[in-house]
Structure formats: C-alpha cells, structure tokens
Please model this.
Amino acid sequence: MTKEFVLVAGEASGDILGASLIKSLKLHYPDARFSGIGGKLMMAEGFQSIFPMERLSIMGIVPILKRLPELLIMRRKLARHIIDLKPSCFIGIDAPVFNTGLEFKLKSAQIKTVHYVSPSVWAWRENRIYKIAKSVSLMLCLFPFELPIYKKHAVPAVCIGHPLANEIPMDPDVTDARAHFGFNLTDKVVALLPGSRGSELNYLLEPFIQTASVLNSHYVDIRFVVPCANQKRRQQVEAFLNNFEHQLPITLVDGQSRLVMQAADAVLLASGTATLEAMLLKKPMLVAYKMSNFSVWVFKKLLKIKQFSLPNLLAGKDIVKEFIQEDCVPEKLSRELIALIDSNQSSPVISQYYELHQSLKLGGSHKAAEAIVELIKENKE
Model:
C-alpha cells in the first residue's frame, strides 16, 4: 500500500529540512506520495503544495494578528483535507503557531503527528509543552539541549542532530564559491541576510544597507551580496536600493544563501537558522534582529534565556555578538563588522565552530526518517 505523507513547512529553512526529509523517506518508501504546504525545494522532490508557503512566512505578534483570520481558515481547510486523506502520518516542520493547532486536531482524529524542529519551549512560554503533549506523537529535536524538557513531560522525542551538519563539509571551499559569483580572492565580501520574511526586511533592510554604506566608505575593494528568498523579497530589496542615497557594490542573488555565505569574509544576518549555516560554514558573523516594540515587550515578558542566536545557545555562552532592537544600528554594526573583517579567520571562535559542527553530526534527515518509520510501524501494531 502506497504511503501518504502530509508535510507543512512555513518558511525557507523549513523547505530545506522538508526536501531533505522527503529524500530520506523515499529510501524507505520509494512510491510514497507527499503533499501539504512547502516551497520550491520540496516541490522539486515531487511534493504537491496545496497552499503557497509564503502565506505562512510571518514573524512577530502584530503581523500574525493581522493575518490570523486567513491562517485559521487555511488551517481548517487543511485539517479537513488531511483527515479525509488519512495519511501514514503528518509532519509539521517548525511553524509552531500554525502546526501545533493543526497537529492537535489530527491527533484527536487518530492520525500520527510528527513535529520536526522543537518549538523553543526551553527559551520561553514553557507551558506550551502541555499543548504539545496532547498534539504530538513524536518530537524531532535538532539540538541535544532540547531533550530534557520533553523527557520531563513524557513526550516522545528523538535528537536527530541538524541535517545541515551532515550536508556542509567541515572545510567549505571558499574559492569555488567566489568563482561562482565572479568575486576575486582579494575582494572583501560581506553577506547581508536580513531575513526571508517581508516583515523582517521591513525592520532590518534599512540598518543593514546603511551598515554596508559605512563599510563601503571604509574599504576600497569591498563587495556586498544579498540572497533573496523569493521574487517578492527581491522586489522589496530592489525598491529600497532604488531609493537609497548612495550607490553601493551590492549583488542580489536569487536564493543560494548558503553559497553566498560560503563566499563571504563576514556575515551580517537576522537571527534564525541562517546563523547555524554561517557557523557550520565557519564564518565570522554578527546576528541582529528588530521587530515591533509591542512584540519585543511581549517576548521580554516571556523569555527565559539571555542569548537568542543558535551558535550562542549551542555553546552555552556568547561566542557571536548579538544586536537586538535599539542596538541594531549602523554605528554599532559597522564597527563590529570592520573588526571581524580585519581579524584572523583562525580565531578561537572559529575553532569552537568546528567543535559544535561535529557535535551536531548525528544523522539528520536519515535519523528523522528512521524515527518516522518506527512511528508508522507502531501505528500498525
């Protein structure tokens, strides 16, 4: 009997994880069918997306509230479709606000549910674990530090490491990456990644481009690269640059964020999965984030941790500098970026990147697929 899998990914990082998981599941079930909500990478693996993934790519309290009616209607339609389909299991990839509610409905309808990428219950709103326990048949954690809270609440969980730790080599080839974009080895290249969501660019694009302007006046041979998650984000960046007061040596690239970072001397980026990629690529980085003052007020009330970037959370200490809200300004960002560009790549921080990279090589999507196969077998029993 052909296996049916329904997956929901809410953004570019989820699309990467989803595509890799589909590949691994095909090794177990070559004739399996995959549908739900996903992006271009998942669709390249034969995935059928019922709704555009872009509709789920929202961050911050206010943007979510504005789109809440649409999201609730989408989730209701999707739940009915999945319950009628009766798939082998449902796999929600990140997007916890959307997926946990959907998983609750599906588990109540006796459908096995997998949540891939643990919500940050260890960081804020720990009481979410009670809803998760009622919604999730299996939690797939990317990081070892996430397991204790699930064990404490008797939620089945497996740490699979991060697929990117297996995909990205320990010593990525900078020369090939630069050749791909036409950069010289002597160029100073800075990757700017202000996020994959429109709301992120609304807050981060201006300070990032202003920072680039400061660096452009400091270095003769500097180049900037901005990878755009999709056509809408590219248009958003182009519109900003067209109205910016200075001409800058900026190259816009469709996708290819990993290759862009691989080619760079330093990376300025929004907090998120991209910080993990930058760490695995052994790149000096600055992590920044801005959102509405209301969102910040809410998060500060609920936040349990001091660091917010993945390299710092994995290390359990500050190894990369973080700039949030009022600290995310060109004066501070440019000063620290200049220090990173001028520093030696063989710094102690880079050595820690190697150690953390090795600690995350636990099997990734292959281990995730094996855990899902076991869950389906339990379903038969």
Notes: The longest strand covers residues 222-228.
